[in-house]
Structures are given as structure tokens and as C-alpha cells.
Fold:
Amino acid sequence: MKALSRLWMSAVILLVWASCCYASPETLIFYSYHNAPPFIINSDSASGLNYDFVKAMQLAVGEKYTIEYQFIDRVALNQRLAEDKPTILMWANPKWFDVQGLNFSWTQATFLDSDVVVSLRSSSFKYEGQESLLGKTVGARAGHNYSAAVPLLGSEKIKRVDASSDEENIENLLSGKVDAIFIVRSSALYIARAKGYVPSLYMSKKPLYTYRRYLLLTHHYQHVMDDVDRAIMDLSDQFFWQKRLKLYDLNSL
Structure:
């Protein structure tokens, strides 16, 4: 009887040891509210920067974590953060997120980006600051705030025409509805090349804003912060990720 008891205890210990050693990797969901190219090029074929970054991070972390991508619109994201739900968000910047009472952690930067001013090459317009926009009609993404750079945008002095997408914003410029547009540099470059608009468009040398893109982590993910940071740092030497940055003409760090 004692022998059977010892065998039973040994079996239990073995099962516990096996479950500890072969536990399933933790799943990390990377959210993004960016759905314009190059962030999403084709969701059916999972092509675009959102998918590429998740793949690059999966290569960097190995088998310790399973990384999945999920799109979320900005309204749903704001609600999720306000409700203090576990969230890892791609392409964020501390200046854009101010949820009272919540503290977020920020990783190493992933790449440099900027908001730029694009006009028709046939016009003589070049953005040199707010004064150069006086009397102009400017296209912008609906819901985006540019008041830090152009406080008069949306006034009688600088009229604003909103677009629901970056593609619509560029089309408004090409059709003459607006004199210039505000747009994310990475999106402008990709769309212009994909659509053959490069000969028609001019990007002013002076940007509206230049910024770094980070990952935002809520307090639920403090235990993975070091691993995620380390993986991002490793991307600087990862062939796949550097090749994707070059493809999209993005500025690595």
C-alpha cells in the first residue's frame, strides 16, 4: 500500500513538473487604430506594417509569447483605456494619450514618423508655418487635432475640409477641393507611389510635427515590459524588419 502511495505521489509530482515546464506561451494582443496604408494595405492577405511588425516581434521574442494583431477604432480604444482594460497599443506617442487617473508604460521607440503638408506640384505653395496657410483651404483627417501647429485651422482664416481617410484626403487635393492637406508622411509616400501620384504631389520640407512611435502598455503588462523592450531593441539588427522599413521608406532609429 505504501509503495502504491509513493508511486501515486511520484506521478503527481511528475505531472506538476511537466505542466510547469511545458506551459503554453502567454498570448499578447497588439492593438492598432491605424488602418491607412502602409499600416494596413490588404487585410485579406494580412499585408501592411501592422502585420509586419507583429511578425517581426514574434521572431524577436521566440516561443516565450504568442503575439496576435487586432484592429481597433479610436473611439473603441479610448473607451477601452478609460475602462482600464489590458491593452498593448502599437504606434502610439505619449502626447496623444492623456487618460486621467491612468498611467501607461512606454517602450523603446519603433521608428520616426511625421505629419506633413502636401500640395500640388503645379502650385507654388510651400508650407513655412501657419502664416503660409492664411487664406488657404486645407484638407485633414476627421477627428485629428492639429491645433498645436496650426491654431487657426478651421477658422475663416484657414478653412478646413475633413476626409474620412488618407486616400480621400489626397483625392480632395487632386480634384482642387483644397489647396493643401495634412497627412502622415508614411501614408502619403505609400499612397502616392501605389497610385502613381508622385509626379503630381509636392511634400513641403518643413513638417507639421516630427515624432517617435512607441508601444503603449497598460499596467497589466508590467511583467512583460522588459521582454518587449528587449525585442524592440533587437529589431535594429533584424533583417526582416529593416527590410520592411526600407520598403515603406520609414526612418529607423
User: Anything to note?
Assistant: DSSP finds seven helices and ten strands in the chain. The mean pLDDT is 90. The beta strands are 26-32, 65-71, 88-92, 105-106, 111-120, 137-141, 159-163, 180-184, 201-203, 209-217.
